[in-house]
């Protein structure tokens, strides 16, 4: 069935640059309560994929919409949805995306948050307003900076409540932020864990899948749950740059090609560097000259490959360049190591 795909945000505001989506379903975000979801379930609102519109798709409740949509409210009050964030963290701002909701978008919205690491909210929960009320329009992104109260500036959050005023549909909700987990010197962990703040900062191709998927905490569920490039018809190779969750010393690298059988890369290699405060764009050119951490290694279909870094790299690492030769798909990457001292 043919569909129209929504558009990503063209230019991210300052509060979203380098931030992660704390409400990414791939990190374990869940809908824990919702006032009404007659036309479309709230789980669709936290999908990591761009929203899609199918002109001729209907279900038993009416027009099928890729997002959360409540019924038309005929009384007082408003609809709301409570999410348990996949990662507890500091919230910087939001994207309330109403893509394809044209005559059924909410005219307004607000967002509250709370911190309940051991439970979910109930009627006695004290919520803190972080955004709104804000005016919404049809089929567009609404990028809203979080307004953190003065006495909550250092607070982390585990849940958010999206209030739509009074009813309607939202295609996607993105919660821009950073994880609140404290990483200490000597901690042994996956330095490339998305849930700890690692991120893919740049890549040359993502035709079949966004490279951020390779950092997700769970195993891939199918070939679409990974990074896959188009078939390369010219010299060279594909690559992506990874910023680690913290500076660290790398002990083992795991490259998982799960589900990639006729389209796995022939080989992969890694380069590494310890970078200061450098813009993402500047990293691309510099990465070509980073020291080799792992020389080109053969890969096989639908398998987990474990590698020990090549000897010779001195000092901690903050960034990696993953090269795949010449193209193909990877499901997951794990970088096991130890957190370095803050100023090492």
Automatic annotation (TrEMBL):
* UniProtKB keywords: Hydrolase, Purine metabolism
> What InterPro entries does this protein map onto?
Allantoicase (IPR005164), Allantoicase_dom (IPR015908), Galactose-bd-like_sf (IPR008979)
Question: Which reactions does this protein catalyse?
Answer: allantoate + H2O = (S)-ureidoglycolate + urea
Task: Domain (Allantoicase): give its ranges.
Answer: 28-179, 197-339
State whether keyword Hydrolase applies: yes
EC number(s) stated in the UniProt entry for this protein: 3.5.3.4
User: Sorted alphabetically, which Pfam families does this protein's record hold?
Assistant: Allantoicase (PF03561)
Q: What's one GO MF term for it? A: allantoicase activity
- Which biological process annotations from GO are given for this protein? allantoin catabolic process; purine nucleobase metabolic process
Give, as in the UniProt entry, the pathway in which the protein acts: Nitrogen metabolism; (S)-allantoin degradation; (S)-ureidoglycolate from allantoate (aminidohydrolase route): step 1/1
Where are its TM segments located?
A: none
Question: Does the record's keyword annotation contain tRNA-binding?
Answer: no
Q: Which protein family is named in the record?
A: Belongs to the allantoicase family.
> What's the protein called, per UniProt?
Probable allantoicase
What organism, scientifically named, is this protein from?
Marinobacterium lutimaris
């Amino acid at each position: 069935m043919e569909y129209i795909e929504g558009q990503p945000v063209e230019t991210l505001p300052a509060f979203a640059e380098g931030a992660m989506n704390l409400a990414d379903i791939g990190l374990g975000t869940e809908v824990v309560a919702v006032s009404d979801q007659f036309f479309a379930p709230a789980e669709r609102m936290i999908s990591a994929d761009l929203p899609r519109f199918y002109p001729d798709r209907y279900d038993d409740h009416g027009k099928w919409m890729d997002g959360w949509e409540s019924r038309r409210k005929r009384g007082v009050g408003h609809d709301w949805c409570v999410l348990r964030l996949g990662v507890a963290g500091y919230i910087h701002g939001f994207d309330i995306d109403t893509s394809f909701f044209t005559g059924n978008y909410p005219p307004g919205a607000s967002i509250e948050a709370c911190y309940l690491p051991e439970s979910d909210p109930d009627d006695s929960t004290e919520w803190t307003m972080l955004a709104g009320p804000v005016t919404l329009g049809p089929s567009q992104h609404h990028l809203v900076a979080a307004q953190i109260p003065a006495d909550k500036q250092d607070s982390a959050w585990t849940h958010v409540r999206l209030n739509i005023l009074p009813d309607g549909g939202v295609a996607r909700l993105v919660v821009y932020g950073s994880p609140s987990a404290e990483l200490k010197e000597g901690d042994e962990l996956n330095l490339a864990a998305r849930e700890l703040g690692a991120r893919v900062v740049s890549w040359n191709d993502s035709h079949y899948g966004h490279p951020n998927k390779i950092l997700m905490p769970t195993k891939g569920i199918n070939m679409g749950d990974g990074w896959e490039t188009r078939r390369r018809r010219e010299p060279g190779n594909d690559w992506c740059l990874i910023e680690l969750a913290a500076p660290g010393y790398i002990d083992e690298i795991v490259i998982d090609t799960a589900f990639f059988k006729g389209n796995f890369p022939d080989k992969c290699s890694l380069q590494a560097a310890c970078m200061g405060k450098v813009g993402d764009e500047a990293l691309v050119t510099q990465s070509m000259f980073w020291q080799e951490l792992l020389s080109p290694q053969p890969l096989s279909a639908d398998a987990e490959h474990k590698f020990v870094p090549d000897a010779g790299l001195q000092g901690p690492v903050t960034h990696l360049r993953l090269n795949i030769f010449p193209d193909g798909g990877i499901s997951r990457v794990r970088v096991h190591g130890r957190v370095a001292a803050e100023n090492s």
